[in-house]
Amino acid sequence: MRILGVASASAALALGVAGNALACNIKDFSAAATCDGNGKGIITVTDIDASAKEATVTVFLERNGADDHQVGSAQKVTGSKDGATVSFAEDWAPKAEYRIHVSVPNIVDKDISPNLVTKDEACATKSESPSPSASPAPSESASDTPSDSATPSDSESSAAPATPGDNQPSAAAGESNLAETGANSNTPMIAGIAGAFVIVGGGAVFFGMRRRGASKA
């Protein structure tokens, strides 16, 4: 009987140890602040609960010893021996503090201890190389484009330029009129002939009067 009692106690102790080893507890959870491939911050919670209990994880940013705000929405994770993870997108600042709360119904309702404190440097955002801008097409300058005002049209170039003063007498015509009324006209000659006739007529009258007087005497 004594032997059976010892054996039963040993078996119960072994079962208890095994049960405690498989039971879900807060020590199965851990958190880390990392960066993704695009330089964005994330908070990752890992669950290594071998009993595969479903847990609800909630993350809070701490400020001055109190919750400042909740990061995203609460997420569920089912633990595994190899570790199951759940991530929260968060552009965390250097040395920021986060409280991670884990809840498993009737088993766990605690925070991961101690609180998560981020690294001394934030995630470095990858700088995007500027895409080469398309060179603007060279605009046609005024010298390249023929101007309507500078180049005459075909109709304008083909038409002969109008002779100024078509409706006015030309200089030659004016000179001809002046010649007709000036020193080159026949007026002096006509005046000379008329004067000669006057002189001849006067002489004839004079000699006629002398002859008539002589005959009376």
Could you explain how this protein is built, in words?
With 217 residues, the chain is an alpha+beta fold. The chain has 4 helices and 9 strands. Strands 3, 4, 5, 7, 8 and 9 form a 6-stranded antiparallel beta sheet that branches. It has a 3-stranded antiparallel beta sheet with strand order 1-2-6, with no helix packed on it. It is rod-shaped, with a radius of gyration of 66 Å.
Supply the key terms.
single chain, 217 residues, alpha+beta, six-stranded antiparallel β-sheet, 4 helices, rod-shaped
Protein topology:
Blueprint: H1 2-22, E1 29-35, E2 41-47, E3 54-63, E4 66-70, E5 75-78, E6 84-89, E7 97-104, E8 108-111, E9 116-117, H2 154-158, H3 171-181, H4 187-216
- How many DSSP H or I helices? 4
Order of helices and strands: HEEEEEEEEEHHH
- Helical coverage, percent range: 25-40%
Low-confidence parts lasting 5 or more residues at pLDDT below 50? 11-20, 178-182
Percent of residues in beta strands?
Answer: 15-25%
Provide the gyration radius in Å: 66 Å
Major beta sheet summary? 6 strands, antiparallel
Tell me the structural class.
alpha+beta
Number of strands: 9
Mean pLDDT: 75
First-residue to last-residue Cα separation: 230 Å
The shape, in one word, is rod-shaped
